[in-house]
Design a protein that fits this description.
By secondary structure, this protein is mainly alpha-helical. The protein has one domain. 52% of the residues lie in helices and 8% in strands. It contains three helices and two strands. A two-stranded antiparallel sheet has the order 1-2. Strand 1 and strand 2 form a beta hairpin.
């Protein structure tokens, strides 16, 4: 580090020391509808977050706000699969609820 002219850190922390705080943070993201749990993993809802007037999502750098090509490069495929599945689930839920009403 000295060869790169970088000062030594004042303190060292481990992520494992903050697991409860991280869990609480992720739970809040899910609670606010910006993420969802599936098969033991948590996935961020980029479009939902981006559509909020209080937030914006930029891939890697702030200058990438609204750049769907940059987003699609790494996340677009998974996002498109998620959206298709979500639309199908919404459609099926509507059909099932109509059957239950009759």
């Amino acid at each position: 580090m000295q060869a790169l002219n970088i000062e030594d850190p004042d303190c060292l922390t481990r992520v494992s020391e903050y697991v409860p705080e991280i869990v609480t943070f992720v739970e809040k993201i899910i609670e606010h509808g910006y993420a969802y749990e599936s098969n033991g993993s948590v996935y961020f809802k980029v479009d939902h977050f981006d559509s909020s007037s209080n937030h914006y999502y930029a891939k890697l750098v702030p200058e990438a706000v609204g750049n769907r090509e940059a987003l699609a490069e790494g996340e677009g495929y998974l996002l498109s699969v998620y959206i298709k599945r979500l639309k199908l689930l919404n459609y099926l839920n509507k059909k099932i609820s109509k059957l239950n009403v009759i």
